[in-house]
TrEMBL record:
<dbReference type="InterPro" id="IPR051158">
    <property type="entry name" value="Metallophosphoesterase_sf"/>
</dbReference>
<dbReference type="InterPro" id="IPR029052">
    <property type="entry name" value="Metallo-depent_PP-like"/>
</dbReference>
<protein>
    <recommendedName>
        <fullName>Calcineurin-like phosphoesterase domain-containing protein</fullName>
    </recommendedName>
</protein>
<dbReference type="GO" id="GO:0016020">
    <property type="term" value="C:membrane"/>
</dbReference>
<dbReference type="GO" id="GO:0009245">
    <property type="term" value="P:lipid A biosynthetic process"/>
</dbReference>
<feature type="domain" description="Calcineurin-like phosphoesterase">
    <location>
        <begin position="52"/>
        <end position="241"/>
    </location>
</feature>
<keyword id="KW-0479">Metal-binding</keyword>
<dbReference type="Pfam" id="PF00149">
    <property type="entry name" value="Metallophos"/>
</dbReference>
<dbReference type="GO" id="GO:0008758">
    <property type="term" value="F:UDP-2,3-diacylglucosamine hydrolase activity"/>
</dbReference>
<dbReference type="GO" id="GO:0046872">
    <property type="term" value="F:metal ion binding"/>
</dbReference>
<dbReference type="InterPro" id="IPR004843">
    <property type="entry name" value="Calcineurin-like_PHP"/>
</dbReference>
<keyword id="KW-0378">Hydrolase</keyword>
<dbReference type="InterPro" id="IPR006311">
    <property type="entry name" value="TAT_signal"/>
</dbReference>
Length: 300
């Protein structure tokens, strides 16, 4: 028979454990950890002899105290040390939550990102929060956000349904970047009844003029079922791995496809997708089982 004293011990132990887990998820994993997650693959149709290291940063969500300009600069320093041929930024630079002490201005986070260096340059796309936090862009229903302008001002090209051919060691490949799939919010003040996307997959891939492999940058991974086999690799962010992940499963994922594209390397019908767990937090500053990460993809 359990005594009151025994019961209180169990209750106290459970409370202490909950507090420890909560403290880890709220304070340690989002702020103190930074993983480098590596993938090695040779996608179907990849050019023999082409070896390419792609560094991907996603979902920065600049704000204090969680993702200050100083911390972004530190992450960039770590990314530079990884020796990437190319660095890609997968969107969501703007904060996506209210639990902050200060919002980091686009001029600050873009200046930190300008320290990134790679032989074949740094290439960016926008994310949904970059659109959602810009009232003028919402009112206009398109055009540029403050994020587009901030990155352009520091010399980082932003791909808005655009493809560009690059070369390494005489071998060509394409970077194709989509505009955001959830860019335009619904609401009476915007005169829209549904969420609107500004992505144009067909128009973007129509710019590819030869058989060189294509790397597609798409903030949300939900587009992957419609990506043709012509694309060697799709790189996405947005999900943050669910921010809470247990034994390979994320209970809550901001995707109409649930856990299907929550995190990691996914292969479907010989098509390859890598979804980054991202760096910052959205809605709440909590991460558990999916720490902030820099993605390194070694291709070929």
């Amino acid at each position: 028979m359990i005594t009151r004293r025994d019961f209180m011990k169990v209750l106290g132990g459970g409370f202490a454990s909950a507090m420890a887990i909560g403290g880890y998820a709220f304070a340690f994993e989002p702020l103190a950890r930074l993983n480098v997650t590596r993938y090695e693959l040779t996608p179907p149709g990849w050019t023999p002899g082409l070896k390419l290291r792609v560094i991907a940063l996603a979902d920065i969500h600049a704000c204090e105290p969680w993702m200050s300009a100083r911390r972004i600069a530190s992450i960039c320093e770590r990314a530079n040390a990884l020796g990437g041929d190319i660095i890609v930024l997968l969107g969501d630079y703007a904060s996506g939550m209210n639990l902050v002490t200060r919002y980091v201005h686009s001029s600050e986070w873009s200046k930190a990102l300008s320290t990134l260096q790679a032989t074949l340059g740094v290439h960016a796309i926008m994310g949904n929060h970059d659109w959602w936090e810009d009232r003028n862009a919402q009112r206009n229903g398109g055009g540029e956000t403050f994020g587009h302008r901030a990155l352009a001002e520091v010399g980082i090209p932003v791909y808005s349904n655009r493809a560009l051919r690059l070369e390494k060691d005489g071998f060509g490949f394409w970077i194709a970047g989509l505009e955001d799939q959830l860019a335009l919010l619904p609401g009476k003040k915007w005169k829209r009844s549904t969420m609107g996307g500004l992505d144009d997959l067909g128009g973007t891939l129509a710019q590819v003029t030869d058989e060189a492999p294509v790397i597609l940058l798409a903030h949300e991974p939900d587009i992957f079922p419609t990506v043709p086999p012509r694309v060697s690799l799709t790189l996405s962010g947005h999900t943050h791995g669910g921010q809470v992940r247990f034994i390979g499963h994320s209970p809550v994922v901001p995707s109409r496809l649930g856990d299907r594209y929550a995190y990691g390397h996914i292969v479907e019908e010989e098509r390859n997708l890598i979804v980054s767990g991202g760096l910052g937090c959205s809605i709440a500053p909590v991460r558990f089982g999916v720490p902030p990460e820099i993605v390194v993809a070694d291709l070929g």
